[in-house]
Structures are given as structure tokens and as C-alpha cells.
């Protein structure tokens, strides 16, 4: 397996390895060079330094878009940045954050940017848009249509995990920080079906097709099935679904009350947001340090 210092003939040259890639077999060749492929979610649960120490030097770390949410200092391991296309192109491009994001990566072991799109409405960007960074394109239009929730959009992490699993790579696929937990700092965007994605992750992990860093929680319902073998797993699942449905309905009713009670406050907030000048709406860039070629 390749390491940051293994640059001999016949092995993958790390720096800029994904430049101009678009063919699935070429992408498979790149990912097949690594013993582990760790997908790093933009999550407060991830301690990237600790995560990197847990895996061998032959590991590839896959980051997503705004890595300043997860990284607090330069990352020196093998890395790819997945930048998802939007109708206006990648958000780090149209928000002017390309230099800020790329500054986190050690160029000697940075393979480049995987510019991803999942629908015809999403626009791919050129290397020039990413300020000359090595850029490959992965066009997965229609890939999730046959199994994802209608009317919802898959997250980039989910799409990559499903695509990599289907590639049947020799290395292990690991998910780190994909919790779908809402906190005061981290939003859970309603455009995605988080429950469906978490269900798929759990099923794939229990089938040993992927790994979840720190493991998968014990399934109490499975233990219940062992305790009462005379009760079928189908009946247990139906009972659990019934309880979940009732609890969700009760929660929705309380949320509706809160929405009604906070209506005036939301209108005031929206008014003040609309009055903010354009220069205040753009995040001020932060650069952890310059990179030498």
C-alpha cells in the first residue's frame, strides 16, 4: 500500500493524482491504492488528529467542502477534497473560499479535488475555478435515483459511501463523524433524508461492507428478539415502528405550537437579516498557513 514517502515507479504519485480524472475505472485505480478510505464528516464529533493516529499511513482521508468546520490546523496525510456541485457550482467557489479551504492541505500528499454532481441541475467546475488545484470530475447523475427518498437530495458523504461500496475496493471504507445529530452549532438540513441515510449506514456496517469509526451501537431490538424467540422479528419491527410513529406525531404537534409562538420573533429576525449589508454576509477567510510547492 502507498504511503506519503512511497513514490517509486509503478505506484501512484500522490500530489495531484486526481487531475483530469472522469472515468470510473480511473477513479477506482486511485482509490484502490489505499488500505483504508476514511470519509470525514464536517462534524464536531471528529478529532482529526486522533483519527489520523488511529489509521496507518496508507490511509486516504476524504474531506468535504468547508473543511474549516473540522480542521483547526494543517492536515499532512493523504487527502482528497470532495466539492459538490450546486446549480451555481461548488459553494467554496461562488463563496470565494477556495484558497481558505485548500490552505489546510499539505500539497505533497494532496491528491486534489473530486468535483461531484448528483443531478443535472448541479454544475461541475473547472480546475481554474478552483484556482488551478488538480481537479477530477465524478458525474453520478441518476446514481441514487433508484433507491433514495423521492423529493430529497442525498448528502455528498452518503453518495460517496454508497458509490465506494459498490466499487468493491480492496481497502476498508470507514465513516467518521456521520451522526446526523443536530446541535446548536451543526445544522441538519431538511433537504436530505437523514433517517434513511443512517439506516443504510447501519445496514452496511452490520453486513461488514463499511466500518463506522468507534463502532455501531448495540441493537437493543436484536437483543429483545434473542430474549423472546417466540416473537418474530417482524412483529418486533412493527411494534417499534408503531411507537416511533406515535412519538413523531406527538413531537410534530409540539413543534407546530412552537412555530406559532415564535412567529413574531422570526419575522423580526428576517427583517434584520435583510437589512445587513452584503459585506457582512460573507464569511471572513481564515488561512492556517501558507503552503510551499
Q: Can you walk through the features of this model?
A:
The protein is an alpha/beta fold. Strand 1 (36-40), helix 2 (48-54) and strand 2 (59-64) form a beta-alpha-beta unit. 35% of the residues lie in helices and 13% in strands. Residues 1-10 and 289-293 have low confidence and may be disordered. The chain folds into 2 domains: 24-181 and 190-212, no CATH class; 233-275. The protein has a 7-stranded parallel β-sheet, with helices on both faces.
Overall 3D form: globular
Count of DSSP H/I helices:
10
Number of domains: 2
DSSP strand count = 7
Strand content: 5-15%
Strand arrangement across the biggest beta sheet: 5-4-3-2-1-6-7
Protein name: 3-deoxy-manno-octulosonate cytidylyltransferase
Organism: Rhizobium gallicum
Could you outline the blueprint of secondary structure elements for this entry?
Layout: H1 24-31, E1 36-40, H2 48-54, E2 59-64, E3 78-84, H3 91-94, H4 98-102, E4 110-117, E5 135-139, H5 156-167, E6 172-176, H6 194-206, E7 211-212, H7 220-227, H8 233-261, H9 263-275, H10 278-281
Parallel strand pairs: 1-2, 1-6, 2-3, 3-4, 4-5, 6-7
Organism: Rhizobium gallicum
Protein name: 3-deoxy-manno-octulosonate cytidylyltransferase
Provide key terms for this protein.
293 residues; alpha/beta; seven-stranded parallel β-sheet; 10 helices; 7 strands; disordered C terminus; 3-deoxy-manno-octulosonate cytidylyltransferase
Can I get a quick summary?
This is 3-deoxy-manno-octulosonate cytidylyltransferase. By secondary structure, the protein is α/β, with parallel strands linked by helices.
Amino acid at each position: 500500500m502507498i504511503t506519503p514517502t512511497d513514490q517509486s515507479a509503478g505506484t501512484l504519485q500522490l500530489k495531484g493524482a486526481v487531475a483530469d480524472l472522469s472515468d470510473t475505472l480511473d477513479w477506482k485505480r486511485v482509490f484502490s491504492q489505499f488500505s483504508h478510505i476514511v470519509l470525514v464528516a464536517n462534524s464536531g464529533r471528529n478529532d482529526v488528529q486522533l483519527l489520523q493516529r488511529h489509521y496507518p499511513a496508507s490511509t486516504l482521508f476524504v474531506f468535504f467542502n468547508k473543511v474549516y468546520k473540522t480542521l483547526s490546523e494543517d492536515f499532512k496525510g493523504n487527502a482528497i477534497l470532495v466539492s459538490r456541485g450546486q446549480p451555481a457550482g461548488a459553494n467554496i467557489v461562488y463563496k470565494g473560499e477556495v484558497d481558505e479551504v485548500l490552505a489546510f492541505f499539505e500539497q505533497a500528499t494532496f491528491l486534489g479535488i473530486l468535483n461531484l454532481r448528483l443531478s443535472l441541475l448541479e454544475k461541475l467546475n473547472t480546475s481554474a475555478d478552483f484556482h488551478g488545484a488538480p481537479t477530477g470530475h465524478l458525474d453520478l447523475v441518476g446514481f441514487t435515483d433508484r433507491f433514495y427518498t423521492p423529493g430529497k437530495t442525498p448528502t455528498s458523504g452518503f453518495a460517496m459511501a454508497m458509490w465506494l461500496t459498490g466499487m468493491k475496493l480492496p481497502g476498508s471504507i470507514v465513516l467518521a463523524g456521520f451522526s446526523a445529530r443536530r446541535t446548536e452549532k451543526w445544522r441538519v438540513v431538511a433537504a436530505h433524508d437523514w433517517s434513511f441515510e443512517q439506516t443504510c449506514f447501519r445496514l452496511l456496517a452490520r453486513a461488514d461492507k463499511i466500518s463506522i469509526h468507534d463502532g455501531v451501537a448495540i441493537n437493543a431490538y436484536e437483543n429483545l428478539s434473542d430474549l423472546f424467540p417466540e416473537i418474530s422479528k417482524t412483529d418486533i419491527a412493527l411494534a417499534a415502528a408503531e411507537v416511533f410513529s406515535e412519538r413523531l406525531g406527538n413531537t410534530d404537534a409540539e413543534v407546530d405550537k412552537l412555530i406559532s409562538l415564535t412567529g413574531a420573533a422570526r419575522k423580526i429576525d428576517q427583517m434584520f437579516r435583510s437589512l445587513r449589508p452584503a459585506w457582512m454576509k460573507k464569511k471572513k477567510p481564515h488561512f492556517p498557513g501558507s503552503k510551499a510547492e
